Predict the 3D structure of the following.
Amino acid sequence: MEIMQAFLVSSAVIEDTAQAAKGQMTAVQDDTQQPSAAQVSSDLHDEYDQMVKTLRTVFNSYISGQSFPIMDIRTQLEKLLLQMKSYHILSFAPRSFAETDYYIHNSVCSALTSYQLAQWAGFKQKEWMQIALAGLLKDIGNIRLDRSILTKPTPLTREETEEMKQHTVQGYQLLKNIAALNEGVKLAALQHHERVDGTGYPLGIDSTKIHPYAKIVSIADIFHAMTLNKAYRKAESPYLVLEQLQNDAFGKLDPSYVTVFIEKVTQFHQGTVVRLSDDRIGEIVFSDRLHPTRPWVSVHGQIINLTKDRHLHIKEIVKT
């Protein structure tokens, strides 16, 4: 009632619950041959786990000079992308996660998110797979770095950070002669840490010289870097990360892609059960288009408007 009054809704049609239940039962009977939501979700996780395994094998066994197993990687990625209907960016979490595999999980999640964002941003269908590969292979240069840096359980020193930055150049060098990848995928490996104001690395170029694939992958990379656990830093709320991306859209990231990303991932979340930062659990009942990261949440019948209660935020998604 509070929501309806706030939006000046003077009347509403009340559904006949008995008739609705009858209709729902008919729908269930007609849908008996369809796979369950649990099965579809399991398929996504199965293919995700296999993609992690494939990429881990490449990281652990690839030797410079060998033929890069791009077809094995692409074949498994194609299987994973067939499960995209079950992938929800804000709520997806790997069912098995080791912090030592952080970069591999980040890459696989970035592939899924980059693929989705490419569609939302209006890229041609023939580019979607290449953009997914750009997300998946963005950190492939880590193969050539000291493994102790990648798995260090504490923040990196200045010297280690500078060495870590070389993964962009190393990745480009590794991918540049692979004919199955277009130039955008190779440049995404090189440029995904560049920023539109020229403050990124390794070249410090500005928006006019950053490839569109790299701009897409940058958003996915940052989102998953902040929402996955690291040994020295716990995952942050996806809604807070979206707000950070919104802030970074002014000078750091491409604002048009960030806007599309935030608008799309926050749509259709009415009914989603969430945990607030004070640990109360409630249900999203309305999303404000002007403040998509701060919806209205119903907690035991009380409406909490997060656009006004700025001291609160959504800590995690409990159920979609």
Notes: The CA atoms of residues 25 and 31 lie 10 Å apart. The chain is about 50% helix and 10% strand.
